[in-house]
Design goal:
The protein is 23% helix and 28% strand. The chain is built from ten helices and 19 strands. Helix 8 links the parallel strand 16 and strand 17. Helix 4 packs across helix 5 and helix 4 crosses helix 9.
Length: 345
């Protein structure tokens, strides 16, 4: 037996900000989606702008993912459940949630092994052809709408998504109390990862970035030391782990030389398709080199870190935009000092 209709009081149409061509955004009226049996309908509150959104907007593609039809961007999202599908308890209506913006198949070998982020059938917000959250309403399977406590604002709830990347990276790096870690890149992900490393117990969090302002910011967000890669060598720092959040080839190459024997190298930043690596260093030190692709089971930890103040996400927000100004949000990175724009549909 299904529930009584819970969508009857909702509007039939909504506004959506749509990428219709490279560097061309248009606001459209679209039908409000109806949740499938296992889904919830969420009225979107806040959406963080990610570098991938900007890349799709400017280039029309990221690697093999090509925008060949109109696409709604935005995958760092929060909101409130306003309707539920037939198999979801009506008691969830009214919940404030952070959205984990993915839909794995749950039955393939990767999913059943607990690596649902690697599901070959994944549907991910704002990755062609799946629409994202720069619109007034979205649906997601109920388990991927994570309740957040009152201590977590809508903006912070949206930023649990990039925090999840930092958590995944810290887990891959095997960070533990007392660890020493080098992080390359003091952009949003680098700064969030530095805070996460500190929350995981890292005793030393060394952040490398060529921009003085970003190094100063990293110092305010968990870094115990900062380095300028144009003048400071990281070779033989002997850290337990190196996490690259820059995607810069020189940073990747030099960062590997900073890791002690049997340490971990975690590649988060996206840069060149092919990077020559110091293979003798990797072999002779038996380094573990791995990548991070999204996340698995990170939202409960992220919500806890944010709610308890172990990670500060709120102060990373440097601007707010409505649906009519999404293009301004996507170009905010061209403004000095901009870090994390947020769209509020």
């Amino acid at each position: 037996m299904g529930h009584p209709a819970t969508t009857q009081d909702l509007p039939r149409t909504m506004r959506a900000s749509v990428l219709v061509a490279k560097r061309q955004i248009r606001t459209e009226e679209r039908p409000v989606p109806r949740p499938a049996a296992d889904e919830v309908l969420i009225e979107v509150a806040s959406v963080g702008v990610c570098g991938s959104d900007v890349h799709y907007y400017r280039e029309g593609r990221i690697g093999d993912f090509v925008v060949d039809a109109p696409l709604v961007l935005g995958h760092e999202a929060s909101g409130r459940i306003v309707a539920v599908g037939a198999n979801v308890p009506e008691s969830r209506i009214g919940e404030r949630v952070a959205i984990e913006p993915q839909r794995p198949c749950r039955v393939c070998a990767q999913c059943t092994a607990g690596r649902y982020n690697l599901c070959p059938h994944m549907e991910f917000y704002a990755t062609p052809p799946v629409d994202g959250a720069f619109q007034e309403y979205v649906t997601i399977q109920a388990p991927f709408a994570h309740p957040v406590p009152d201590a977590v604002t809508d903006d912070v709830a949206a930023l649990l998504e990039p925090l999840s990347v930092g958590i995944s990276a810290s887990r891959k790096a095997e960070l533990a109390p007392g660890s020493r870690v080098l992080i390359a890149g003091a952009g949003p992900i680098g700064v969030i990862t530095a805070q996460t490393a500190k929350a995981f117990g890292a005793a030393e969090v060394i952040v490398s970035d060529p921009v003085a302002e970003r190094r100063a910011m990293a110092g305010r967000y968990g870094a115990t030391a900062t380095l300028d890669p144009t003048t400071d060598s990281v070779a033989d720092l002997g850290v337990d782990a190196f996490i690259d959040c820059s995607g810069a080839t020189p940073a990747v190459r030099s960062g590997i030389t900073a890791v002690r024997g049997a340490g971990a190298v975690v590649l988060v930043g996206m840069g060149a398709d092919d990077v020559p690596l110091p293979i003798p260093v990797i072999q002779s030190r038996e380094l573990k080199v791995t990548g991070v692709f999204r996340y698995t089971d990170t939202w409960p930890v992220a919500a806890h870190l944010a709610a308890t103040g172990q990670v500060d996400l709120a102060s990373l927000v440097t601007g707010w935009f409505d649906l009519d100004h999404v293009e301004d949000a996507l170009n905010a990175d061209l403004t000095p000092g901009s870090l994390k724009p947020v769209v509020r549909p």
